[in-house]
């Protein structure tokens, strides 16, 4: 257990790393140049191991390793290896949940960027700019949120490429599906002379309505989510209350066969309840096809 705590501390130190270039940049921006002492280089294998750990433990998903650290501390306090094993087993599950949350946030940012793009380009078109120039001047910031696909759209607009094709390709990113409609309006406007600004306004209005509907649904589901979280934490409050009353529930659960059996059964029931509530929430958020279109 002590070795596990030492390993967790070493991982935290490796994630922090050293930033010599950032220090030099701060010194230059401050107008003061001071010599920076060279840092001692680690052996090659140690540097490779440190880089590997930074890749694996870096990012928002690195917070999942707090489960292992908390399990190690609880195991030391309760003199049992079960909390440490549970904490290590929870690391991949929590990491997957954190990554899913990050993907959902990135999807929402892309959707907001598409709405911003439609409004900004429409305003530039009404001011008299050509479509390519309007996309370059007003849509650059919004398209940067899409990464490489957004850069491809800007390159197509700058050098006379296939802008509708680039928009359809960028629409494959999660959250940027609205660009498919933008590409269709762009192609119709170029080939048939239709008004592009009016089409972009309609797409922006439709995307805003869909976003408002999604936020309303999320607000309606906030109550069941909070209730499920409170019910899931009730056993923890029960253990804390029993410890405060001097009943030593952790010693009974971790050091006696009946307690271990109750712990396993209770853990399985807890997992089943959380999985059931999560499935209900996902089924409520899943779009349903109505008349050939997806509705929520």
Automatic annotation (TrEMBL):
<keyword id="KW-0812">Transmembrane</keyword>
<keyword id="KW-1003">Cell membrane</keyword>
<dbReference type="Pfam" id="PF00482">
    <property type="entry name" value="T2SSF"/>
</dbReference>
<feature type="domain" description="Type II secretion system protein GspF">
    <location>
        <begin position="121"/>
        <end position="241"/>
    </location>
</feature>
<feature type="transmembrane region" description="Helical">
    <location>
        <begin position="228"/>
        <end position="246"/>
    </location>
</feature>
<keyword id="KW-0472">Membrane</keyword>
<feature type="transmembrane region" description="Helical">
    <location>
        <begin position="258"/>
        <end position="278"/>
    </location>
</feature>
<dbReference type="InterPro" id="IPR018076">
    <property type="entry name" value="T2SS_GspF_dom"/>
</dbReference>
<protein>
    <submittedName>
        <fullName>Type II secretion system F family protein</fullName>
    </submittedName>
</protein>
<keyword id="KW-1133">Transmembrane helix</keyword>
């Amino acid at each position: 257990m002590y070795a596990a705590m030492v390993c967790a501390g070493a991982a935290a130190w490796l994630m922090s790393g050293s930033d010599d270039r950032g220090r030099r940049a701060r010194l230059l921006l401050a107008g003061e140049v001071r010599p920076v002492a060279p840092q001692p280089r680690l052996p090659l294998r140690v540097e490779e191991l440190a880089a590997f750990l930074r890749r694996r433990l870096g990012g928002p998903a690195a917070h999942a390793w707090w489960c292992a650290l908390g399990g190690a501390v609880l195991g030391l306090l309760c003199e049992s290896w079960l909390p440490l094993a549970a904490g290590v087993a929870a690391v991949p599950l929590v990491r997957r949940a954190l990554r899913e949350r990050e993907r959902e946030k990135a999807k929402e940012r892309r959707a907001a960027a598409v709405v911003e793009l439609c409004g900004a380009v429409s305003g530039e078109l009404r001011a008299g700019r050509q479509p390519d120039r309007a996309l370059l001047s007003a849509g650059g910031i919004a398209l940067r949120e899409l990464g490489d696909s957004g850069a491809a759209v800007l390159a197509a607009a700058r050098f006379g490429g296939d802008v509708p094709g680039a928009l359809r390709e960028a629409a494959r990113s999660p959250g940027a599906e609205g660009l498919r409609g933008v590409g269709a309006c762009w192609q119709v406007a170029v080939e048939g002379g239709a008004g592009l600004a009016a089409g972009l306004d309609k797409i922006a209005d439709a995307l805003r309505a869909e976003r408002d509907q999604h936020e309303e649904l999320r607000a309606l589901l906030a109550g069941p989510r909070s209730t499920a979280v409170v019910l899931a934490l009730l056993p923890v409050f029960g253990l804390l209350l029993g410890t405060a009353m001097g009943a030593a529930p952790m010693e009974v659960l971790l050091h006696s066969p009946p307690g271990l059996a109750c712990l396993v059964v209770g853990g399985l029931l807890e997992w089943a309840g959380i999985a059931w509530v999560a499935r209900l929430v996902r089924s409520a958020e899943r779009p349903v096809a109505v008349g050939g279109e997806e509705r929520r």
